[in-house]
Amino acid sequence: MNTPPTSATEEQIAELVRRFYERALQNDSLRPVFEAAVADWDTHHRLVQDFWSRTLLDTSRYRGHPYSIHAQLPLRPEHFDIWLGLFRETAREVLPADAADKAISRAEHMAESFKAGMFSFPRYEGPKLWKSAL
Ligand code: HEM
């Protein structure tokens, strides 16, 4: 009996990205953030595909810094919960089980660190705030 393949293929990763965005753009909380930020969808899909290929297949096409990109978006903590819900669902559908586990735990870990960095402290609003408290 053949054991099922445990690592993802580039085709499966492309499908993961395609289906994930199909869902994300139907979601009323996520859609406006994506629509305001993404001008070129082909480029965006390719970047995200390269990112997951680096995570799952150890390739080196993705060289970006996702935290600094997300820290500049108008996100709230619940965006991450919705994003993760859609991602888990899509990863389980499209990827072999081991690869889905790996992708999901990487996404969960990133969401935790993004949230810790973005929402733990009140936003710094410039010197006016503390000067007025003097
Ligand atoms: C932890 C979960 C997430 C992961 C792993 C992730 C992954 C990524 C990656 C790899 C990129 C490409 C960054 C680059 O240009 O180098 C990206 C961009 C982007 N992500 Fe996320 N993302 C996450 C959560 C979210 C959430 C919750 C939103 C809310 C809608 C979001 C919206 C966006 C947008 C709008 C861009 C494009 C930004 C731009 O090109 O200006 N992401 N994401």
From TrEMBL:
Q: Keywords in UniProt for this one?
A: Heme, Iron, Metal-binding, Transport
Q: Where is the signal peptide?
A: none
Keyword flag Ribonucleoprotein: no
**Gene3D superfamilies recorded:** Globins
Which is one Pfam family of this protein? Bac_globin
Q: Which InterPro entries match?
A: Globin-like_sf, Globin/Proto, Hemoglobin_trunc
Keyword Heme among record annotations: yes
Q: Where does heme bind?
A: 44
Q: Name one GO molecular function term.
A: oxygen binding
Q: What is this protein called?
A: Globin family protein
What is the originating organism of this protein? Methylococcus geothermalis
